[in-house]
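Q: Is it fine to ask for two folds in a single conversation?
A: Yes, each is treated on its own. Send the first.
Q: Here.
A: Result:
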Amino acid sequence: MKKYDLIVIGSGAGNIVLDAAIEKGKHCALIESNKFGGTCLTRGCLPTKVMVTVANEIMRSKHWSKLGLIAPAPQLDWEKFSARVWNKINETDSVRRYYDKRGADTYHGTARFISSHELEVSLNDSTEIVEMTGTDIVIAAGARTRIPDLEGIDDVDYITSESFFGEDWPDKLYKSLIIVGGGPIGCEFAHVFSAFGTEVTLVGHNPYLAPKGDRAQSEALAQSFQKRGIELHLNKEPFAISQNGNSKSLSFRDRDTQEITTVTAENILIAPGIRPNTDRINAQAAGVSLDKRGYIMSNECMETGIDGLYTLGDINGRYALRHKANYEAEILAYNLYLREQDAPYRRASYKYTPAVTYTWPELASVGLSEEQCKRDQLDIRVGKMPYSHTGKGYAMGYDSSTKGEAFVKMIVDRSTNRIIGFHACGDEASLLMAGYVYLMQNSPHEIPVLNPELKASEACKAARLLGSKDIEVITPDNIMSIERSMTAHPSLSEVAAWVTEYLD
């Protein structure tokens, strides 16, 4: 059995911990069952944003006439466009080569726990099974599309985000597409294909699009989608799917009236949410606890309650966002390999986790929504300002006719004047949000103890005793105010944030 100081399962954000361990001379292994680089690089953030950027330019061109520009509408070159998408996805090869050169052992295969610190890895390109043990193991195996239990689903060649950026990548643009799911993934695909000219029908379980954001954003997005001709069916429960030749159908009922509707298109994208890959890695054999959704339970130090077992990213069930996974990985790398001996552990604070939905308009949020504040009976002040009330907004083509389409919204605690929520809707909303994330993330606030029933290390317990003092008060002009915060990924705000890494 091979022995390692550190084993990382999953080659996404966990690579940050791997890099830190390698720098300390640790003997390390990296295991990846799919493409090296994780969800973000191969089927998530990056290939989708290549698509979104093109869709945004098409949508922007529709406003040229308001600016006094006369030009032919842009035409999509599917072949050239496809090549750009796959150039990004194929960077996966360089990830494995990088770690091979750094001396880590890389395994392309599926890891399964056989005990708390023992794994067997079934290699993808052979029948060989490699057994290994690690002093520390980081479980960063991610998640995958949650496939709903629909009548007939086993007989239909539907697509998911995984298969779309794989064997189901189309040779040409779909004429029509049904999307199941009104969250960020479903909305982004709806935006992209509608802009490209596909007839899009979106069926969502919730009454609102992108329901985790502020209601004003959701309503603005729905209005924009409907204006563009996207057919929306919200508050619906799909129950059956079928295929007839080159067409596919989805049947659903209204969750209030129970009225049944059937829609038909060339293809169907299933994107109602995700499920963790805990079953694939046999996580329970490691002794870790799973919540009712199947995610690995862990505390704010990324500890699972089993000494030497840690988890981060989508598989822990706290925000399926790459920047959140990076944040966790940086904290874990610090705690295990980078901190000075007497320095306290860092703990993760999720209170001000930024989120962006890359649609047209773009949606960006951090902190509480107005609806959450009302539910919690908080005494708040709310300010909402449209882009059109600024000179730059007017220059971009926003005016009184578009004031509901692009705006920022601030929510403030009435008694303290502290910002507790910020939401932007419109061009580069993620950029407008970035400064608020740094202000809010670095404000003094208590970090909750997560899953206190789990065994915690003595170092994590000691950090908890510091209470609110474990949020180091950093002056806004100190680079640590950026480095200790989450920066929405992938957005241009990363350019301004990551420049700190290039300081000599």
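Q: Second one now.
A: Result:
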Amino acid sequence: MNTTRMPSIFLGHGSPMAALEDTPLTREWAALGKRLPRPRAILMISAHWETKGILVTAGERPRTIHDFYGFPPALYAQEYKAPGDPELAQQVAQMLAPIGRADLDSWGYDHGTWSVLTHMYPDADIPVIQLSMDLRLSPEGHYQVGKALASLRDQGVLIMGSGNIVHNLRLYDRRPGAPAQPWAQRFTDTVKAKVAAGDHAALIDYMSLDPEVALCFPEPEHFHPLLYILGTQGPGERVEFVTDEVFSSISMTSVLVGAEPLKVAA
């Protein structure tokens, strides 16, 4: 078994159209897949799977879910055929038993998962399972689920969260080159500062971070995957910000935990 301690990562995932695009963002995702140690499996927490109770996918061949509408036919034809990992799903359920029951489910890969992994691991040859976010959990509860699963990193499992630090589609300015909304940039910068300082308590209490936080996300489901990844962070473990841009009212900033720093050529 691969016992390399894996990093963990929160990725800003953006539009599902990214699955079909060749952009600076998608090239950064591809570079991450090449940079990180190869995982034996991936555990994904996506903003697009919220449930009453905790569920974990246990199928051997999870389906690709096209959980959106109004996009080009080519996007609906997109498939991500990575295998599942029923044994890992059972292990995750057992690990979470002390803090809450986790049931096995036949969900699949929603676009918060496959639009990113299409670029990071295009061969789709690494097993993937998804973990749902329990709607009934407090922010502290989401964080504690991440802590409960952190030891999977020592078993070669890449724990990933997929969402956005700021996600307000209603206020998104679609004009090419539209600048970041001031409140979106400010909140992203505040979150980055707290992450860099290891101030997890402040991030769990994210509704107190900014007087305009309600503009940053009408609902917090895109922010919550970050709390799981913070929960996996060990004491003093380094963090790095990648894909670090804010487009109007969408923050694409990603948080990489525990990775070796990039070597800069002399």
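Q: Anything structural to flag on that second result?
A: Two points. The CA atoms of residues 243 and 253 lie 5 Å apart. The first strand starts at residue 8 and ends at 12.
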